[in-house]
Each structure stands twice: as structure tokens, then as C-alpha cells.
Amino acid sequence: LEKLVKWNGEQHADITPGEYTQLTGRAGRRGIDVEGHAVVLWQRGLDPTALAGLAGTRTYPLRSSFRPSYNMAVNLVQQFGRHRSRELLETSFAQFQADKSVVGISRQVQRNEEGLEGYKEGMTCHLGDFEEYARLRRDLKDRETELAKQGAAQRRAAAASSLEKLKPGDVIHVPTGKFAGLALVLDPGLPAGRANGHRGFDHHDGPRPLVLTAERQVKRLASMDFPVPVEALERMRVPKSFNPRSPQSRRDLASALRSKAGHIVPDRHRKGRAPAADDREIARLRTELRAHPCHGCDEREDHARWAE
């Protein structure tokens, strides 16, 4: 080789590793000849390192020359249909280079579709349409979940409202938590705005009553300690001289609380009727579910796992 540059139609440019391999291909054919020799004539400005790079490179970037046309698209759609033609174009090397992510997403969609077919086969029931039965189950579960959330929100609101009515000296029963049991309210712990009679109570800034337990502990409770509404079971006088930091004051008042506790029966909050029991939508869905042919299938739960 006399030069390592060539005219590309616009200018004299350095040859690429691929062009070097093509030019020196006559020195030996891969798979046939064991060894070949290529000679590059020395000239001023020749860089041996660059030459070694040309000769040593064995990976070359490939660029697709595929250029789809309107005529090609029409012929593909006519011969294979729109869906198949799109698959062919998306799997072409040109499309792969244009947008690798599209090819990956397309393959993922294809795998997902194949997986869905497997799920569909697994939930096939010989008694009827299990997809319809599974939809009824989902609708029933969603409705029950919705009503359960509404019920929980109503109970929290009722509990917060009951805490607002507490006054110093009220004896209450803390239903849950570390300090469950009888307690004496020292301070209702109302938010500043609520204590002044203003509306707009925020549940997150709700009452946090300060109480004295029968074990002489003074603690500030939170709404999470009252999952159900609370009521005053008895009244006790809190001495004006009471100091919550004084062990003696806590001991004396806790002793009086324990003395009263002997005849105080905690009011066990009765759970009301579940909202789902009177909901017409749930009743309708349950009736349709029991009447569906797939409800009597012995493999119903196995099919349901595939449907989920």
C-alpha cells in the first residue's frame, strides 16, 4: 500500500480499519490461507502506532443501508398484513440501530403476551367463563376494601371527636397501647385553635391528652392509643397543688385513682355492624358470585391464582 488515505468523494480522508482489512484481503483469505503479508510503503508523516491500530482492529461498526419506502410498506401490508409487517420492520437491523429501546420494549411486550396466554390457559375452567368469575371476585374485593377504609376513617374521626370532649379530672380507659388501662386526664391536650373554640380541627394535630396512669406514670397519649371512641367513666378532683414532676404528687393521686378503680367497670366499646353487611352492591356481587357456574369448580382456587 502506498498511502493510507483515500478520496471519499469530498476529500482525502484516512482509511478506516475495515477499509484496511478489505485492501489487504488479497494477502490471504480467512479459512483458506494460513498466513498473509501486507506491505505499507514508508513516507514522511507515517505514524507506526496508527498503522498498528489499523492492522490490529478486528471489530468494525456495522451500519445498515436498509431504507424502507412507501412502495415496500404497501407490498408488505398486502402480502403479510399490517401486524406481521410491523413485526418484520421492528426486527430489522436498521430499526435496531435507530432505536434499540423500541426493539427491547417490543420483545418485552411479546414475552408478556406469551406469558398472558399461559395465564389464560391456566385459569381455563370447563364449567364456564372464569375471566368473568374472576372479575366478580375482584369487584367484590375492591368494594369490601373501600368500605373497610371508610369504616376505619369514620372510627378515627369518632375517636378524635370523643377526645375533644375530655376534661381535666375525667377517668378514662385507654383501650390499647403500652399504657392500656385506667388513667386520669390531667390536660385534654387540645390544639390551640380548638381550645379557643375555633373550628377546623385537623386530625393530624388532634388532641393529645396528658394522663396519669394507675402505675404513677404521667404520659402524653396520641390518637393511635384510641382506635375507638373514649368516654369519661368517672370524675376525680385534681388538686391545684399537683405537680406532675413530683414523685410524691404522682404517688398520692395514683393511689386515689386505684381506690376508685375498684368500682369502675371499663366500658367495652361494642363493635357496630360492619358496613359490608348492609351494602347492596356487595350483596349483589356475592349473589352473582355464588350463582356463577365456576363457583362450583373443584379447582376454583387454582384457577383463581392464575387469574390474579
Structure notes:
- By secondary structure, the protein is of the alpha+beta class.
- Helix content is 45%, strand content 9%.
- The protein contains 11 helices and 7 strands.
- The strands form 2 sheets. A 5-stranded antiparallel beta sheet has the order 6-5-4-3-7, covered by helices on one side. A two-stranded antiparallel ribbon has the order 1-2.
- Strand 3 and strand 4 (181-187) form a beta hairpin.
- Helix 1 (17-23) crosses helix 2 and helix 7 (130-164) runs antiparallel to helix 10 (280-291).
- The longest helix is centred in the middle third of the chain and has 35 residues, at 130-164.
- The radius of gyration is 41 Å and the shape is elongated.
Q: Structural class per helix/strand content? A: alpha+beta
Molecular shape: elongated
Proportion of residues in helical segments? 40-55%
Uncertain runs: 193-203
Instruction: Let me know the average pLDDT.
Output: 81
The number of strands is 7
Strand content: 5-15%
- The end-to-end span amounts to 69 Å
How many domains, as an integer?
Answer: 3
Record the strand order, biggest sheet: 6-5-4-3-7
Secondary-structure element order, as H and E? EEHHHHHHHEEHEEEHHH
- Count every helix, treating DSSP H or I runs of 4 or more residues as helices: 11
Main pleated-sheet profile: 5 strands, antiparallel
